[in-house]
């Protein structure tokens, strides 16, 4: 064949190839259209409005969404089909919460970017490296809930958290890890104080199974005196408590306080209570002596719920409540746990006198500890108060033989 003939042949074949490619493209489009129709029939969610699909996806979220959980929402929803991926990426609320156990900057950045401008809830199990901290700082203004499980400097201390409402320090797992390794998960008071100073609109702060270190005059002399005008809930937990911290706080809106009273501690809560004048309604003391507890209670006339894990002296407090109507005049619920009680022979008559004096304002009373069964006459009087609407539980709580559950004995209903 001549050159001209070969060139014409090549041109013709090229044209036929282009035509066949166009036929193939049209066949593929027809195939995808048929697949979409089939998918719409077999999977109705694919044709639902985005608002409905998003609401269904949101109801699939676990309590702690995590990039480490590929078989739970939202990660699982990204691996089903293209339509589900598009819905997941179009629903910022799916990505507004993250439980992060590593410092991979790409994961943190992409997750929080998908949340767009939603208020964020972040749980950090480990300290962040410098790059991840920079990403964290970028999104700090959107933070609404923050949990820091491990002690240490997680964040740049110049970062502000203007929308932060809840701050939680520690977790049960970090407590178990610290007990196994004998390395305390102990927070420095200065770090906690500075975190609080960066969250002016904080509503709740809880230290759960996280130890707050004792005051170090060499490093903590410059701790700021903080006023948190909106804080309503404060919980100190753990084996040790930084009692010095509360002496640096003014909390005029405080509604609920969980406070260990350390044996031998020189910390006096009275200046804090007198300075804050909080409208406290619920108070839980862990430990403490009767004299200091009585002093603090006299500064809290608004209190309606009081719980006390008593070290000693509960009898004296019961006597004071029986004798003085001005002490906790609004009290509605009283729960006391103690290993043993002094003046054991007069305990139940004193309790009966206290409950009778405060009836009907006091509607709930629980007392657990080593104590004898009330005598028959006293039992009748207790049950008479129960018949009039008061909830009374007096008895013991002990672990079963396997120490797997607590067995409660109520002498009043026995």
UniProtKB/TrEMBL annotation:
Residues 3-37 form a coiled coil. Keywords: Coiled coil. It comes from the Eukaryota. This is F-box domain-containing protein. The lineage of its organism: Eukaryota, Fungi, Dikarya, Basidiomycota, Agaricomycotina.
